[in-house]
Every structure is written in structure tokens, then in C-alpha cells.
Amino acid sequence: MKLSIVALVLGIALVDAQVAQYCVEEENNVCYRVNVPPQSASSGQGDIYFQIQGPSSKQWIGLGQGSQMRGANIFIIYSDPSGQNVTLSPRLGEGNFMPLYNSEAQVSLLDGTGIANGTMTANVRCSNCSTWSGGSMDFSDPESQWIFAVRDGSPISSSDVTANLQQHTIRNGFTLDLTRAVGGNSLNPFTSTGVGGSVPISNSSSNGTAASSESSDTANLAHGIIMSLAFLIFFPFGALTLFAYSLALAGFGVGIWIAVTSAQLRMAHPIIGIVVISLLFFQPILGLVHHMIYRRTHSRTLWARVHIWYGRALMSLGAINGGLGLQLAGDSGRLEIAYGVVAGVVFSVYVFVTILGTYKSRDKLEGETGATVLKTGEIGMVPLGAKGSETEALNSEGGMNGTSGR
């Protein structure tokens, strides 16, 4: 949604109108202003006006109705291809990930919208901001809940209202006293076109911070670290397998909490995660079945191969799902690249060790898991076929091969 610049007003001029304002302390010149016409305040529905304003050096600036991202009615502005106007993208927050375009929003950009003198401004009329899918707002609420978010970076330069957005640099919540924002009969309370006078501005403090903001960030971080350790470190190299299982289950629990509280259960990342952890339950069972058969036959079985490749498939799927998780969380491209590099290095080392072990084992006997064992008489090993004992194996097949039961 674009509007050619008719007049860009850095201040606000208005007759008879009241404007409630909140400016972000951490960000110079990022401010949000709201005006409620008297008829809208009395009826509880109808038009309201708001302004989003900040430095044009910001990649995007957002304002939302609500106390948290989930269920919020969100409006995001960014530069259009000309670099002189802005694109307004109404979106719905469905969780702690990129909000999706809201085609039901009835919004219009008004005069005074544009980019000039290093400032990006959007003067907006919203005709259905009293209710939306996921929430509502009382236009006479003295403590109305709002959220904001800002992203630093190069301009998006797009007129696409569904453009992909990188994760915010800063976000928080605040309250506005809408009883002090009621007044005026102008069709555009943020310009002085046809009107004179000054603006009585009501300042509100940031006392409505969304309770879930910090906790969800901490949970996302914990989930990412735990699952990365399990699937990129411990499982691939067969180190502390029981501990790796414990880590995976703990990370899974945190992930389920995040998915439920942020309405993400239908997204690809949590679905794949549930599948992987569920299938992981059968891995030690496969190992136990093979072990029991091996104890009777002292020969390698098909179960060993199934056990090994089943584990490798789960490791690979889990590692790939980690990248999907980063995308879902809206993390920066640099973090996704770093994760990809680490996963690539681990995969390369894993393949190298597996191939090297296979090469070295060509002339050696195989133990229970298909790993190589020293031949009879070599120091430190029990002779193959000795009664009452199991052959000790040097693991050349890689992690998650499940020498369970030992």
C-alpha cells in the first residue's frame, strides 16, 4: 500500500484532536501516535488513526494491538522501491515467528505518509481495528495494550505486502491511555492540511511489557542449544548416548511448550520434531533385539544394519530440522549460516571417520555391531567364540548404532 507524498509533517498539527503518544527510549525518533474519533470511542467501533514514525535507516518498524505477538493485530512499514514512499503491511501475529499478511485489514495510508529528511512516516486510518482474528480492543481503555518492534538494516525496498521480514532487533510492549486520545473530527489528525493549531499530546510510559517476551526468547535459546548438542555432538559420535537421549527429551519438552504457547504446532519444525523424537524411542529397542539375537548366534544380523541406518536417518532429519527451527524463530541469516557450517563440518567428519573405519576393517573380523574386533590372541581382546563372554568392539560404524544391553 503506497501513497505519493503530498506533505510530510515531522511534527503533528491538529485542531480539537487528542493524540496519545509513545516513543521508544532505546531507539532515537521511533514514535507511535494514536487518535480515536469521539464517535468511535462511544460506539466501540469505527475508524481510528495511528501514526508510525522513525528513521528511514530502519529496515522496518512495526506496531501491534495486543500484549504479545500471538493474537496481535500488527502493522509494519518499510520503504517501497522508490525510496520515497512506504509500504504498509497489515499482519496477524500467530506466535513468536514472522507474522502473516492479513488480507482482512481495512487500512488506508493518508496524506503525510512518506520518506523525507531521513524520517519514515505512515499516517494510517484503520476501519476495523476494534476486533480482529485473535483479539479486540476497547477504544476507551485507559490501559490499552500495544507492542512494537524495530529491525535495523538496509531498506527492504519492496511494495510487496507479504515480503519476508528478518527478526526484530528490539521489541517490547507498552500501554496507551485511549481516553486521552479521544477528540477531533479531522479525516487526518496527523497533518495540518486545512487545519491549524497545535497538538495536545498525551505521553504514556512503557508499563505494559508482554510477559512472554523474555521467557519465550530464553526458551527458544535453550531449545536450540539443547537439541544442537544432542543431534550435532553426542548422537553422531556415540558419546554419552544415554545423556544424549536425556538431552533430546529435555529439548523436546521445551519445544512442545514453545509450540503450544505460540500456536506453532502445525508448523513443519514442530511436526518433524515430534516425528523424530517418537521414532527415536524405537532405536534402543532395535539395538536390544539385535543384541539378544547376537548373543545366541555370535554372528551379525540384519537388525544391526537396520539399527545403524535407522539411527543415521534420525540424526540427519534432526539436524535438518534444526535449520527449519531457526527459520521458524526468525533468526538472522548469519545464525542460520553458522548452524549450516557447523552441521556441515560435523557431517563431513562423521562420514570421514565412518569410511576410515570401514577401510581399516577390511581384513578384520566383525563384532556385534558390525564394528571391527582384534583377532584371537591380540592384546586386550577376548578371543572370538570364547564361551561366556561378548566380543568387545571398536566402533567404526559411527554414532547411534546402539550397542544396547551392555
User: How many E strands?
Assistant: 17
Distance between the termini: 66 Å
Helix and strand element order: EEHEEEEEEEEEEEEEHHHHHHEE
Residue share in β-strands: 15-25%
Shape: elongated
pLDDT < 50 stretches: 1-16, 193-213, 368-399, 401-406
Portion of residues within helices: 25-40%
- The secondary-structure class comes to alpha+beta
Q: Report the biggest beta sheet as strand number plus sense, adding barrel if it closes.
A: 7 strands, mixed
- Average of the residue pLDDT scores: 77
Q: What is the rounded Rg?
A: 30 Å
How many separate helices?
Answer: 7
Structural account:
- It is a single chain.
- By secondary structure, the chain is α+β, with helices and mostly antiparallel strands.
- It has helices at 38-43, 212-234, 241-261, 268-280, 283-297, 302-329, 333-360, and strands at residues 19-23, 31-35, 48-55, 58-65, 73-79, 86-92, 100-101, 107-109, 114-116, 119-126, 131-132, 135-136, 144-152, 170-176, 201-203, 365-366, 372-373.
- Strands 1, 2, 3, 8, 9, 10 and 15 form a 7-stranded mixed sheet that branches. The protein has a 6-stranded antiparallel sheet with strand order 7-6-5-4-13-14, with no helix packed on it. Strands 11-12 form a two-stranded antiparallel ribbon.
- Strand 11 and strand 12 form a beta hairpin.
- The N and C termini lie far apart (66 Å).
- Mean pLDDT is 77; it is low at 1-16, 193-213, 368-399 and 401-406.
